[in-house]
Design a protein that fits this description.
This protein is mainly alpha-helical. Helices cover about 60% and strands about 5% of the residues.
């Protein structure tokens, strides 16, 4: 969903569509956690990329913890 949310920025009015507003309500609270990190360099914002990496690391960490508990 974060990738689709990022791709909406390429389309005029993408965030104003019903689908764009729906994705905004889901993605913006999570992305807001990273706003203080100032992940914009050279006019490019890397907040979504960083958020995806954090989700991936959390997912892998949770998998390792659950695997240790269950086996």
């Amino acid at each position: 969903m974060l990738v689709i949310y990022a791709l909406l920025s390429w389309f005029p009015g993408g965030y104003q569509s019903a689908f764009g507003r729906f994705l905004s309500r889901i993605c913006e609270p999570y992305l807001g956690l990273f706003d203080r990190l100032k992940l914009s360099f050279g006019g490019i914002d890397f907040t979504i990329a960083f958020a995806i990496i954090v989700l991936q690391l959390a997912s892998q960490g949770l998998f390792v913890i659950l695997q240790a508990i269950l086996f």
